[in-house]
Structure formats: C-alpha cells, structure tokens
Amino acid sequence: MTTENKTLGICEIKEFLQHRYPLLLVDRVLNWEDGKNITAIKNVTVNEEFFNGHFPHKPVMPGVLMIEAMAQTAALVSFLTMKIKPDENSVVLFVGIDNARFKRPVVPGDQLRMDVEILRVSRGIWKYKAVGSVDGQVAVEADLMCTIRNAADASQPAGQ
C-alpha cells in the first residue's frame, strides 16, 4: 500500500473502517501525514437517520456522533500510520474522552471538518487531539484515547 495519494474517497475509507450506514461518519479524507495528523470531512445532510428524532422541529447533529466521527477519523490515521487494513477480527475501542467541548451546533447542510492530531502512542493506547469545525468555526473539540484490539479480546478491560 502506498501513501503517495494523501486523499481517500468513501470506497477507500471503507477498506480501513468497519463502520457502515448509518454509523459510517467520515465521507472523505482530505489529507494525512503518517504518525502526525489527518483532516477529513463529514457532509451533514437532512437525510441522516438521527435527524428523525434529534430534533424533528430543529435538526441538530448529536454531540456524541460528532465525537464518534472524530474517533473514526482518528482510527483512519492510526491504520494509515501502521500501514495496515483491519480485518474482521480487529476493533477500535474508546479508552477515554477528555476535555470534550461543544461550541456550536452542527445542522443539515454543514460540512464538519475534522482535524485529528496524534499526540502519542504508548502500550497500545493512542491519544489524539481532535477538533471539528464548520466554516472555520470550532464546533467540537476533545482529547480522545483509543486502542486497537482483537475482536475476541474486545470484551476484556483495556488494561488486561
């Protein structure tokens, strides 16, 4: 696998992320640098399943899904950095979410730009700084920690 092309379309993203509709929340990777960072986008449309209930009278993307979209972006940069594609036995799990802040609503028609920086990797735990913005305004930010595990071991605590 070559990393000459620093963009990924949806078909390539699906090779690295096991998420599928309605939970695949990354539409395009704009750029990445191995071991450092990634920029991706989520096009937010009124057709999203979650808008049926959040909220029918004033659609707002749930904060937890903005965090999930940034986590999926983080998983992408991890797999790209390791130069591996996950198989059916791989799963990326949250270990922690710190300093999450929601600064503005994300609504249909917005394009959520996700900038994720790898802060460190230690003992199988990846730590990232993630920022989601719309039109240059920060919408969400958080420090994320994830680990990549074998699916058979996924039910065990992270420290095991």
UniProtKB/TrEMBL annotation:
Protein name, entry field: 3-hydroxyacyl-[acyl-carrier-protein] dehydratase FabZ
NCBIfam families the record matches: fabZ (TIGR01750), PRK00006.1 (NF000582)
GO molecular function, one term: (3R)-hydroxyacyl-[acyl-carrier-protein] dehydratase activity
Record-annotated active site: H54
Family recorded in the similarity comment: Belongs to the thioester dehydratase family. FabZ subfamily.
Compartments it resides in: Cytoplasm
Source domain of life: Bacteria
GO cellular component terms attached to this protein's record: cytoplasm; membrane
Top EC group: lyase
InterPro entries: FabA_FabZ, FabZ, HotDog_dom_sf
TM spans (from-to): none
Gene3D superfamilies assigned: Hotdog Thioesterase (3.10.129.10)
Catalyzed reactions: a (3R)-hydroxyacyl-[ACP] = a (2E)-enoyl-[ACP] + H2O
The protein's role, per its UniProt record: Involved in unsaturated fatty acids biosynthesis. Catalyzes the dehydration of short chain beta-hydroxyacyl-ACPs and long chain saturated and unsaturated beta-hydroxyacyl-ACPs.
GO biological process, one term: fatty acid biosynthetic process
Catalytic activity, EC: 4.2.1.59
Keywords in alphabetical order: Cytoplasm, Lipid A biosynthesis, Lipid biosynthesis, Lipid metabolism, Lyase
